[in-house]
Amino acid sequence: METKSSIFSSAAKLLLLVALLLLAANQAATAKTYTILVGLGDSECPGYFGGTGGSIQPGDTVKWQWHTAGHSVTSGTYGHSTGLFDSGILNKVGATFSFTFRNPGTFPFFCRVHGSCAEYGSVTVAPSPPPTPPVNFVITGSLAIARSDHTATLLPGGKVLVAGGDPGGDGFLASTELYNPASGAWSLTGSLATARSGHTATLLPNGKVLVAGGSDGIFLASTELYDPASGIWSATGSLATARIGHTATLLPNGKVLVAGGEGGDFLASAELYDPTNATWSATGSLATARTGHTATLLPNGNVLVAGGYDGNSGLASAELYDPASGAWSATGNLATEREGHTATLLPNGTVLVAGGDETFMSAEVYDPASEAWSATGSLATARIGFSYTATLLLNGKVLVAGGYAYPNIIASAELYDPPSGTWSTAGNLAFGRELHTATLLLNDKVLVAGGANNSVFLASAELYDTAATPPPTTPTPVPIPAVTVNVSARSITQGTDATFTISASTMNLSDVTTVHYSMTGKAKPETNYTLSGVFGQAEIPAGASSTTVTLHALTAPMKGKSENAIFKLLPTTSYTLSNPRKASLTIVNVR
């Protein structure tokens, strides 16, 4: 696991005794050049990268300098180049290759000549620290059950109903909970008849909540009603088509429009729920089947559906639904295809669309009067579609919080100001999270609940409150685990498996521990064997004390009667090594 203080992190052995050399190209210039030496290895695995320390910002240059000949440096990870840079193989000692990094982020690199030795590193580019953001998020009561991909609905009395979701591991949740803003506490309420996640939840004019569709391992057509007075759920008919990834929009006439989604196929169909007789009926179909789209009720009563995915690509198309005719019509296209984005109706009647899988940072505004989209300011932080939330505040600004951008879960939040079309920092969540919910409360605070942080599913909840001043806290020291490795068998035959078990002496309940390793020996990966997971690294889940990497011996011809494979743990700052720190096995030729 890389620490924030580590600018260059290498998976190589601590045999890399090279320091990163800071070279100022010009004392008057602000851009800097850093040198990493290439080829600091041993007879088993030549070509290690070396270098630690330093501070790199956009505009700085990294220069790789060949300590020995016959190596290369390529952006990406072994077997998965990103195409950002590639030195080619340089056969001259002292040869150099330079690349100037223009954008913040973490950029992995590897030696493709010796990639089987897990020779790789990364460059982290971080701009100058911005002013300390305001502390706007404070912890509130935790959910009784950790969950993600659930729904959260503000009830007329001010409480928030959270329903269903994914608890992590096997199964789906039928449980539901109520948040009381007055006490900051959660309490269980009646359970859904059918466990589900990926469903929709819509507050009806009579104060009840309609839950529709989703999945419990299969696509669901069932729908249920929650009665806040009794705390009980009851069945209320079924959709004609089971679906997930759809939208549900309350219309001015009190009906609910469900549109699109996925139900085995990608769906163009739409249905209407009538609360007066608790029935579903078909209405006009979308021109384009789509899932992962947004649906926004406009001031004129029409519904704007934008973007999504049709099974082949992201969509830029948008459509308008007219409740009077039950028909859809085309409207202006988004400038960029996107799915999993957010769409927020602004006080002036326009619609802000932000992020999405195809664009990450860009945003656009739809004007119902002209039926046209125009670009507006981009998010400061990339956030992959479906992972984050967007909430309209009472002051007319839009709060975007959390999410995911490879390889990090995001804690930051941003505010969009419609008059200026710009984004500004809004502080950081106490816990980075994705697939959470964010609900505007009657007191203008925003309740952020649940979600996931990598493999950890969250029960925690927090409040966005510009007036918040939490008490100071003293960080709790996190013990650094000592890591060992053992192998299940000293010898295996071709076509069979062996398991390397990586164990940590101390469990870290809040973080995943990423352990780096190399493979040496006469047996070669992809030629004589394959390994489970990501080559060169393995993750010990939060709260766990071990993980495994499975080696499968291939049946390809071998030169001799047997060949050995050596699994070596590599040091990082997030753990120490203890014996045994390597394990070897022999692959026996069956031919």
Question: In words, what does this structure look like?
Answer:
Mean pLDDT is 85; it is low at 1-29. The chain is globular, with a radius of gyration of 27 Å. It is mainly β and 591 residues long. The chain folds into 3 domains: 8-125, Cupredoxins -  blue copper proteins (Immunoglobulin-like, Sandwich); 137-464, Kelch-type beta propeller (Neuraminidase); 482-588, CalX-beta domain (Immunoglobulin-like, Sandwich), CATH 2.60.40.
Strand order of the largest sheet: 1-10-9-6-7
Number of domains: 3
Strand content: 35-45%
- Mean pLDDT over all positions: 85
CATH topology of the largest domain: Neuraminidase
Helix content percent band? under 10%
Quick one: overall form?
Answer: globular
CATH class of the largest domain: Mainly Beta
Query: Which spans of ≥5 residues are poorly predicted at pLDDT below 50?
Result: 1-29
Give the oligomeric state of the chains in this entry, treating copies of one chain as homo and distinct chains as hetero.
single chain
The number of helical segments is 0
Largest sheet: 5 strands, antiparallel
Q: In CATH, what is the homologous superfamily of the largest domain?
A: Kelch-type beta propeller
The appropriate CATH architecture of the largest domain is 6 Propeller
Structural class: mainly beta
Could you tell me the radius of gyration in angstroms?
Answer: 27 Å
State the separation between the terminal residues, measured CA to CA: 42 Å
